[in-house]
Specification:
heterodimer; A: 578 residues; alpha+beta; six-stranded mixed β-sheet; B: 400 residues; 4 helices; 51% strand; globular
C-alpha cells in the first residue's frame, strides 16, 4: 500500500467508528415497561440435543492469550468506546440493572437472602456418596498431577473423587466444597460437592475395567494399579481417606465459552462476553481468588425440566479457589496475573527487575490447610484469571457494582457458614480464613462501591402527603462509609424539564409531594400513548461523602399511573451511571 | 415477568463498521488457523504430544525430548533426545541425543550418570560423543587477531570420557577423569571464506603441527565446592572448581603432550527478591613441555561463543591461556523465566603468567532470558554485542 493512502484509510476507519457510535450500535438499552422489569429470561425453551464439544486447553490458552487479544484490538467500536470511556454495557440486564433468572444464573443470596444453613448446605441432591456400602470404581485417573477416579455408590449415583495434596491436608477438598457453596449462593449453577471420609476397603474395581497406563498401553486395571493411586493419597490417623465427592453432572455437552454463542443452542441469544453474570464473575471470583476461570472449568448440560430439554450452564471444579491450587498451595502471584501475562512480563523485562510486584512482598503461608490466601496485599481491581477471559475483560463499573453487591450480601455469619463447609480440623486455620474473607469482602465493597453511586433497594410507597421513595446506601449499610458524613440530593425531571430544586439532606428517603404529582399528571395528559415516553418521570440521586464532590447519579425511572391502587409512580427502571 | 430475549439487531453503523474490522481481522485469523492446525496435528500424535510435554516438564520424565538451538556458526540446530531415569539404579540417568544443523553440524552423544547432582553419593559419568563442525572459524593465534583474517575449517571430534565424582562433604567433591579423543581437521565448508588448510597455514603463518589431526588420552583430577542454593536458578551461594588434566598423544600424535589447568569461580548474590548478581571468573592455562611440538590451534584456549565472550563468534580469539570475568544481573520476568543483562571481559594470552596485562581485554554485553526449574536450566536465549557484529543464541534442551 502506498504510504499516502494511510491517512485516508485511518480517516475512513475513524469516520466509520463515529458513524457507528452515532447510529447507536452496541448494547440494547433495557425496555422500560409499565409493568416493571422482567425477572425471567425464557432461555429454557425446548431445543434439539446439541453435540458435545471438548476444546483443547493448550489451544484455548494460546487463543485467549494471543489471538483473542489481537482480535479485540481489531474491534474498532470497542477501541473507540475504551478511548471515550464508554464501554459497552451487558446485554442481558433488566431495566433495574439486574440479571433475570435464566439457564446461567438464578438470583439467590444477592437479592433474596439465604440463611447460613442454606448456604452451608449448598446444592444437596444426594447428600454425597453413600459410605455404608461398597463403591465401584469405573474410571481411574492415572496420569496428571493429582490422583483421582470416578465411583458409583450403592445407590447407583456417580461421583468424581478428588484428594488433597499429601503435604497439605484439607487444602483442595475444603476449597472445592467451600467454593461450590459460595458460587451456588451467589446464583450460579454448580454440581453437588461433598467432603466425604471413606475406607479403601469399600472400593471395588468394576469387572473388566481397562485403562490406558502412563506408557500409553491399554490394559486391565488391577488392584495393584489402585494401590499405586492410593499410595499418593493422604490418610487420616484412623485409616480413612478424606476426599471431595463431586456428583457427576448428567448429559454433558462440553464446556461453555466465555466468548461468542453456542451455534447449536437456539436459546443462546446473548454473546457470552456480554453476559452480566459472566462479566461480574471478576468481582465475585476475586473474593475467593478463583483465578482458574477458563472454559474448561465450565460445563453445558442438556437437562430436562418440566418436559422441556435445554442446556443449563455450570461452573465446575473449585479446587483452585482460596489458597489452593488443586495439587499444591497457590503461589503468591496467582490471582494477580494471567498464567502468562505478556504485559507484566514486558514491564519486568524492560525495567530490568527494578519494578517489583505487590505479590513479591508476600510472606510464606501459615496454615498448610489454607495455603496462600491473604487480604493485606489483595487489591480488588488487580485480580486476574489464569488466561485472559473475554467476559471479565469486558466488565464495566456497573457489572462490577452488581458483583460487589452479591459479595457484600455475604455477611459474617454467611461467610462462617461457607468456612464451616470446609470442615477444617484446625480451628485456628478456620478463624484465619474467616478473618481473611471478611477483610477481602470489605475491600471489594469499598473499591467497587466507589465506582458508582451505591444506592439500591428502592422502595416506592404512596402516602397521604405524596410519594415516598426509600433506598439503601450500601456503603453505609455495610459500614464502609459513615452515615453522618453522607448527604443526598435528587433532581426530578419530566420530559427533560427539571420540576423541582434539589434539597440536600441526610435522609435516605425522597419525598414527591402531592402538588408535584399533580403537576406531573397535568403534563402527562390522559390520552398519551405509553410508547411516547411521556409517562416516564426521571429522578437522579447523588451522594456526597464528607468533603468529596457529588457522586455520579443513580437514575430512577418511574411510570406515571394516576389510576393505580398502589402508587401513582411505579419504579420501572434503575441505572447506576458510571 | 418473563422476557423472550433476542440478540440486539445490527444498526447501519454496525454493518458499516464490520467491513474494516473484518479486513483487520483477516491476517489475524490466517495466522490463528495455522497455529490451530499445528496444535491439532501435534495433539493428534501421542508421540509429538509427549515430546512437547517432556521438553518443558521440570519433572524427570523418561522419554523422547526435542533438542533445538541456534548459533551463528552452526545455524539452526534440531534434534531428538531420549532420556531414561532410574535405568540401572535409583536416581541415575541415561541420555541419548542427536542433532543436525542447517550448516551440517552434527552431534551424537550417549551419556550415563549414575547419580544426579546435588547428591551425596559417589557418582560416575560415562560419555561417548561424536561431533562434526564444518563451519568453524579461525582468525589466527593471539589476542589481536583481525576479523578480516577469518578462515573456515571443519573439525570432527570423537571421544569417550569417563569421570568419577566423590563427595567429601559440605558441598565439596573430588573429581577424577579419563578420556580418549580423536580430533580430525579438514578443509572448511563456508563458501565465502578461505577453507583450504594449506592456504590457511600460509596466510596465517602457522606450522604444520598447528593444523594437524590428533589422537590423545587425558587423565585429570579436580576439586569442586558447590554451595549454590538451587541448580536451575541459583540466587545465593556459588561454585568453585579447580582441575588439572594431563594429555598425551597416541598413534600418529604420540609426540603430543600438554596440560590444561583450569580455575573457575562462580558467585551468586541475592540483592533483593530474587534479583541476583551472578559473577564468574575463569582462568585456563594450556601448557606443553618445551620439547613437545606446538599444539594444534583447536586444542588451545579459545574465547568467544555462548559460554564465555558472548559478543564474539566461537573461538574468536585463540591462544594458550585465557582469563574471563563475567557479571550478570538476573531478575525475574515471569514465573520460571528470568531475564538477565551481562558484561563479559576476557583476553587470551600466550602465557598468562609471563604476559599478563590489563590492556587489550575484549568486552561484550547483552541481554537474555533463562527458563529454569529448581533442578535445571531448560532453555536460554541471548543477544550479545561485542566489537563485531551482534550475536544471537537460542538453546532449548539446555544441559541438566
Amino acid at each position: 500500500m502506498r504510504r499516502r493512502h494511510l491517512p485516508f484509510l485511518l480517516g475512513t476507519i475513524a469516520a466509520l467508528s463515529l458513524m457507528a457510535l452515532a447510529a447507536g450500535c452496541g448494547a440494547p438499552r433495557p425496555q422500560l415497561r409499565p409493568e416493571g422489569p422482567y425477572w425471567i429470561d425464557a432461555d429454557t425453551r425446548d431445543i434439539p440435543e446439541p453435540a458435545g464439544a471438548d476444546p483443547r486447553l493448550a489451544w484455548q490458552t494460546i487463543d485467549r492469550t494471543v489471538f483473542n487479544q489481537l482480535e479485540q484490538y481489531a474491534d474498532i467500536e470497542r477501541d473507540v468506546r475504551i478511548i471515550l470511556g464508554d464501554r459497552e454495557e451487558a446485554w442481558n440486564i433488566n431495566a433495574v440493572d439486574e440479571v433475570p433468572d435464566c439457564s446461567w444464573f438464578t438470583n439467590r443470596h444477592g437479592l433474596h437472602r439465604m440463611s447460613p444453613d442454606e448456604i452451608r448446605r449448598g446444592v444437596s441432591l444426594t447428600g454425597g456418596p453413600d459410605t455404608t456400602g461398597p463403591w465401584t470404581l469405573f474410571r481411574p485417573k492415572v496420569g496428571g498431577k493429582t490422583p483421582g477416579f470416578r465411583v458409583e455408590d450403592p445407590r447407583g449415583k456417580q461421583y468424581i473423587i478428588k484428594f488433597d495434596p499429601v503435604d497439605n491436608p484439607e487444602l483442595a477438598t475444603a476449597a472445592g466444597a467451600m467454593g461450590a457453596r459460595y458460587f451456588h449462593a451467589a446464583g450460579y449453577n454448580v454440581p453437588e460437592e461433598t467432603i466425604v471420609f471413606w475406607r479403601p476397603e469399600q472400593l471395588r474395581i468394576r469387572d473388566g475395567l481397562a485403562f490406558t497406563d502412563r506408557s500409553g498401553i491399554r490394559r486391565p486395571f488391577t488392584s495393584q494399579d489402585l494401590q499405586d493411586i492410593l499410595k499418593r493419597v493422604r490418610r487420616e490417623p484412623d485409616g480413612r481417606i478424606r476426599s471431595l465427592a463431586s456428583l457427576a453432572l448428567p448429559n454433558v455437552k462440553g464446556p461453555f465459552s466465555y466468548t461468542g454463542t453456542r451455534a447449536d443452542d437456539p436459546n443462546d441469544w446473548c454473546r457470552h462476553e456480554h453476559r452480566r453474570e459472566l462479566r461480574g464473575l471478576y468481582v465475585i471470583a476475586s473474593l475467593i481468588n478463583h483465578y482458574d476461570l477458563k472454559d474448561q472449568n465450565s460445563l453445558d448440560c442438556y437437562v430436562e425440566e418440566d418436559g422441556r430439554c435445554f442446556l443449563r450452564h455450570y461452573l465446575i471444579d473449585f479446587g483452585s479457589t482460596f489458597g489452593s491450587n488443586g495439587d499444591r498451595p497457590k503461589e503468591p502471584l496467582v490471582g494477580y496475573a494471567n498464567g502468562f501475562d505478556l504485559r507484566d512480563a514486558i514491564v519486568s523485562m524492560v525495567t530490568l527487575g527494578l519494578w517489583t510486584w505487590p505479590w513479591e512482598k508476600a510472606r510464606p503461608y501459615e496454615y498448610p490447610s489454607i495455603g496462600y490466601f491473604e487480604s493485606q496485599i489483595f487489591r480488588p481491581h488487580k485480580f486476574d484469571a489464569v488466561v485472559p477471559n473475554p467476559a471479565l475483560e469486558n466488565m464495566t463499573s456497573r457489572d462490577a457494582y452488581w458483583g460487589a453487591k452479591i459479595v457484600m450480601a455475604f455477611r459474617d455469619d454467611d461467610i462462617r457458614a461457607i468456612v464451616d463447609a470446609g470442615q477444617y480440623s484446625d480451628a485456628a486455620a478456620a478463624d484465619y480464613l474467616l478473618r481473611t474473607l471478611i477483610e477481602r469482602r470489605d475491600k471489594i465493597g469499598r473499591h467497587w462501591f466507589a465506582k458508582v453511586n451505591p444506592l439500591d433497594n428502592f422502595m416506592v410507597t404512596d402516602g397521604s402527603q405524596g410519594l415516598l421513595i426509600a433506598f439503601d446506601d450500601l456503603a453505609v449499610k455495610y459500614d464502609l462509609e459513615s452515615s453522618h458524613g453522607t448527604r443526598y440530593r435528587h433532581f426530578l425531571y419530566h420530559n427533560g424539564k427539571r420540576l423541582a430544586q434539589p434539597t440536600p439532606g441526610t435522609e435516605r428517603v425522597i419525598r414527591v409531594p402531592d402538588s408535584l404529582l399533580q403537576v406531573i399528571s397535568s403534563r402527562v395528559g390522559a390520552a398519551e400513548e405509553p410508547e411516547s415516553g411521556n409517562h416516564l418521570v426521571r429522578i437522579d440521586i447523588q451522594s456526597k461523602r464528607g468533603d468529596q464532590g457529588w457522586s455520579k447519579p443513580v437514575r430512577l425511572w418511574l411510570w406515571h399511573q394516576p389510576e393505580a391502587s398502589d402508587a401513582r409512580l411505579r419504579l420501572v427502571g434503575v441505572e447506576h451511571i458510571d | 415477568m418473563v422476557r423472550t430475549p433476542e440478540p440486539p439487531r445490527k444498526s447501519v453503523g454496525d454493518r458499516l463498521l464490520d467491513i474494516p474490522e473484518e479486513l483487520l481481522r483477516l491476517p489475524i485469523r490466517a495466522v490463528k488457523g495455522v497455529v490451530y492446525g499445528g496444535i491439532e496435528a501435534a495433539n493428534s500424535s501421542a508421540t509429538v504430544a509427549r515430546l512437547v510435554e517432556n521438553a518443558f516438564s521440570p519433572a524427570p520424565i523418561t522419554g523422547l525430548y526435542p533438542v533445538a538451538s541456534y548459533g551463528s556458526n552452526s545455524g539452526l540446530v534440531g534434534g531428538l533426545g531420549y532420556r531414561n531415569f532410574d535405568l540401572l539404579r535409583d536416581g541415575d540417568r541415561f541420555d541419548l541425543r542427536g542433532s543436525y544443523s542447517t550448516h551440517q553440524y552434527q552431534r551424537f552423544r550417549i551419556r550415563y550418570e549414575s547419580a544426579l547432582p546435588p547428591n551425596d553419593h559417589p557418582a560416575y559419568i560415562i560419555t561417548l560423543q561424536y561431533r562434526k563442525r564444518p563451519w568453524e572459524h579461525f582468525y589466527g593465534l593471539g589476542n589481536d587477531s583481525r576479523p578480516e583474517d577469518r578462515v573456515a575449517y571443519t573439525l570432527e571430534q570423537t571421544g569417550l570420557d569417563a569421570s568419577v565424582r566423590l563427595p567429601l562433604g559440605s558441598g565439596v567433591a573430588a573429581r577424577a577423569r579419563g578420556a580418549i579423543t580423536a580430533d580430525n581437521i579438514f578443509d572448511g565448508q563456508a563458501d565465502h571464506l578461505v577453507t583450504n588448510l594449506d592456504i590457511i597455514r600460509e596466510s596465517l603463518d602457522l606450522d604444520r603441527d598447528a593444523t594437524r589431526s590428533t589422537r590423545y588420552v587425558s587423565i585429570g583430577a579436580g576439586l569442586e565446592h558447590d554451595w549454590r542454593d538451587t541448580l536451575g536458578r541459583p540466587t545465593h551461594g556459588g561454585i568453585e572448581r579447580i582441575g588439572v588434566t594431563y594429555n598425551r598423544g597416541v598413534g600418529r600424535s604420540d609426540d603430543l603432550e600438554f596440560f590444561i589447568t583450569e580455575v573457575e569461580i562462580q558467585h551468586f548474590l541475592n540483592v533483593f527478591r530474587k534479583r541476583t548478581i551472578a559473577a564468574r571468573l575463569l582462568i585456563r592455562e594450556v601448557d606443553r613441555p618445551d620439547q613437545a611440538p606446538s599444539l594444534p590451534f583447536y586444542l588451545r584456549s579459545g574465547l568467544g561463543g555462548e559460554d564465555d565472550l558472548r559478543g564474539f563468534s566461537r573461538s574468536r580469539f585463540v591462544d594458550n591461556d585465557l582469563a574471563l570475568l563475567t557479571v550478570e544481573w538476573r531478575y525475574p520476568v515471569w514465573r520460571v523465566v528470568d531475564g538477565f543483562i551481562f558484561v563479559d571481559e576476557a583476553r587470551v594470552f600466550s602465557s598468562l603468567r609471563d604476559d599478563f596485562s590489563f590492556r587489550g581485554w575484549h568486552s561484550s554485553a547483552g541481554i537474555g532470558l533463562r527458563v529454569w526449574s529448581e533442578r535445571a536450566l531448560h532453555a536460554k536465549a541471548m543477544l550479545a554485542f561485542g566489537e563485531e557484529e551482534p550475536r544471537l543464541y537460542l538453546d532449548l534442551g539446555a544441559e541438566f
